[in-house]
Amino acid sequence: xxxxxxxxxxxxxxxxxxxxxxxxxxxxxxxxxxxxxxxxxxxxxxxxxxxxxxxxxxxxxxxxxxxxxxxxxxxxxxxxxxxxxxxxxxxxxxxxxxxxxxxxxxxxxxxxxxxxxxxxxxxxxxxxxxxxxxxxxxxxxxxxxxxxxxxxxxxxxxxxxxxxxxxxxxxxxxxxxxxxxxxxxxxxxxxxxxxxxxxxxxxxxxxxxxxxxxxxxxxxxxxxxxxxxxxxxxxxxxxxxxxxxxxx
Length: 248
Hints:
The structure is a single chain. By secondary structure, the protein is mainly beta. It has no helices and 21 strands. The protein has strands spanning 2-9, 15-22, 30-35, 40-42, 46-54, 66-70, 73-74, 76-78, 81-88, 92-102, 107-116, 123-128, 132-135, 144-149, 160-167, 171-174, 179-181, 183-187, 193-199, 205-215, 222-229. The radius of gyration is 25 Å and the shape is elongated.
């Protein structure tokens, strides 16, 4: 913190002063990639990247208080969480780098390695439902749908697919039983498809709801991400400070 003071004096020696406080921020933000994990292997030609950017600001970090580029792609930021969609992958090893900047130009970065495997084999694939958003605690409008295909791209039916919430405190909704759970096992249908519905967790942020999906006997997993938006305030209450007294 720096105090800048000014003093003015007129010819009659009347004096007046004023001052302001200015802080110098030379501390870079903290940037971390949460998804995918370092060393992750996928068969897809692109991937969504989520993570956290933290900085010394009032409240939380949003788009107007920082920025993140992931391999040159601008990420969305909300409540410290960032999401960069469809980062291209080449066959083999890929370096994913998140470059963060605060509003004063201080820089930080974080990198992971992702491998794209193009070997012909049974694959688990995201079909639809990725990248949705909704109010915290609400159920997403569309189900999370994956497909299971053999090395010739034909559907694989009757296999167990497990959906598991592994970020935020959301739940998967079973329409058949009407119950909510953190993990759900679903059989692929005749078209090789399996799906689950997600109710978002109670923490708002960009891409901070994550569901990992795996299949029995299939190498690798896929991730669904979803964003939770804060609900509009319904009421305002006095917390403290009311009914005070003081001298006039």
